Amino acid sequence: MVDLAESGAVSPGHGRHGPGSGSGSGNNGKKTSKKSRTRRGKRGRRRRNKKNNRNNKTPPPYLPPEAEEGNIEYKLKLVNPTQYRFEHLATQLKWRLQEGRGEAVYQIGVEDNGLLVGLTEPDMKASLKTLKRMAEKVGADITLLREREIDYDSDRNTRKIAEVLVRKVPDDQQFLDLRVAVLGNVDSGKSTLLGVLTQGELDNGRGRARLNLFRHLHEIQTGRTSSISFEILGFNSRGEVVNYSESRTAEEICESSSKMITFIDLAGHHKYLKTTIFGLTSYCPDFAMLVVSANTGIAGTTREHLGLAMALKVPIFIVVSKVDLCFRGTVERTVRQLERVLKQPGCNKVPMVVSNPDDAVTAAQQFTQSACITPIFTLSSVSGESLDLLKVFLNILPPLSNSKEQEELMQQLTEFQVDEIYSVPDVGTVVGGTLYSGVCREGERLVVGPTDEGRFLRLKVGSIQRNRSACRVLRAGQAATLALGNFDRSLLRKGMVMVSPKMNPTICCQFEAAIVLLFHAKTFRRGSQVTVHVGNVRQTATVECLHGKDELRTGERAVVRFRFIKHPEYLRLGAKLLFREGVTKGIGHVARLLPPSQNQDQNQIHDQNLQEH
């Protein structure tokens, strides 16, 4: 057929396969036909793509719709408002600040439904100027967190949206206060990191930064934390760090700060696990920071500490330290290892690696909005690499509870948990702890207990200090130390409560709890003894009975009756419970308190059973 075509036997208008497939004659006709078809096909595809692009433009980006409650406000623009409008905007800002307990975030260039519209440069400048005037009117300061360009429509000029933090210390408070528990395996760099953050000087690679944090000689000698210590990091209203590098005392830091982060430095070694659990259950941390060494990865008590924080429902973020000691590949391997653990069915977390300031802002906001987000920071306490990202995150981190929840707690009767007891020269007996509910003032009369006999003793609050500075009024959720004058220290112990005389506190020797057994080497049955942690209460208890079962195995649930072996305790219904003994671990909540009369009856029956045996 090729021969025929080459000799001209094929008539014009016929191609290789019949009529209509090309024009002209010979091989040139075929090539022309093929090229023209290709060009026509390309032009057709371009036209179709153009049409599709016109019909299917990239959808505009959205934020979640604005919530009526909470401290986040969307504003399309704030350009030259009238006086009446300005007053309304200032009142609205006051409301958002109240909702955020002194902090509010404004998204400028965003509609109420969350559509990111953006503003031109002149409109953005005018809007930020108006927002600054609004903040000044209510006595607040603003900090520009970030600006982002919105360019989803090529027909319009590039526009920007801005995210602004507005901060004002509430009139009835000295500063905003967040508590962060610091967890992690021994030698992971917890105390060193806190020393660098709070002292403002980098470490020398041999642990110099942590020396100021240790409370005992053996801690300095071994370099290992064995007790609970507290360190503070402040931020002023403009978002700048306030620490011991510019302030000599804690009082100066408190005076200069509008936001305080109180770090609770806990022990990493397994033999101090009961101290670590006490710190998590008693001091009511808002967040937990799990420190993991980049060169060792997940080792020792790391998994256990992660499990404890999750069991107690404390939001957790992760810091991978010592990145200066490793190659980049080692750090990435540790991060991948963490991501695998966090994604496992037991955790169900969404890891979020923070690598720039924009990530840090996003992480701080999403962290409190979604329980599954877990930010991961990679930093060095020696070189200072990425240390600023952690500071940005801590500065923006909002409180978990809103103003309504705090107000409801403040309306209740006073209840103060006793976590520490001291004797201070010229002051007398001093107790440290957290005010669970109500309001406590200087000179207030309270009762403390229960004693070994189950009684409550009267006392008077002398003075109050928060973060080592004087404070006249203590509010629900705040930690402080209270001076009790010449009250006999020997009558006090950790785990007691100081409550209003109007309250009728419920004390018990026996209680029932709905539990799940996380791990047990053999079986969990009647007569087992475990150490029970409920808030600031820590005491050994015996399992009196398991309702509906003879024994429990790992992963099983049951309602269990416990009996304290030493003295009665004050418990609240619904309080989270954690128990352990060796490798045995379990969690649950207090379901029922047995009144003292019933406790005595049960004890008599128990004693009779023992005599019979």
From TrEMBL:
Compositionally biased region (Gly residues): 18-27
Domain Tr-type G, first and last residues per copy: 175-403
Stored Gene3D superfamilies: P-loop containing nucleotide triphosphate hydrolases (3.40.50.300), Translation factors (2.40.30.10)
Basic residues: bias regions: 31-54
Biased composition regions of type Low complexity, renumbered to the chain: 598-613
UniProt keyword terms in alphabetical order: GTP-binding, Nucleotide-binding
KW Iron (keyword) present: no
Keyword Lipid biosynthesis: no
Region (Disordered): 1-68, 594-613
GO molecular function: GTP binding; GTPase activity; translation elongation factor activity
InterPro entries linked: EF-Tu_GTPase (IPR050055), EFTu-like_2 (IPR004161), GTPBP1-like (IPR035531), P-loop_NTPase (IPR027417), T_Tr_GTP-bd_dom (IPR000795), Transl_B-barrel_sf (IPR009000), Transl_elong_EF1A/Init_IF2_C (IPR009001)
PANTHER family (alphabetical): ELONGATION FACTOR TU-RELATED (PTHR43721), GTP-BINDING PROTEIN 2 (PTHR43721:SF3)
Entry's family note: Belongs to the TRAFAC class translation factor GTPase superfamily. Classic translation factor GTPase family. EF-Tu/EF-1A subfamily.
Protein name (record): GTP binding protein 2b
Organism from which the protein derives: Amphiprion percula
Organism lineage string: Eukaryota, Metazoa, Chordata, Craniata, Vertebrata
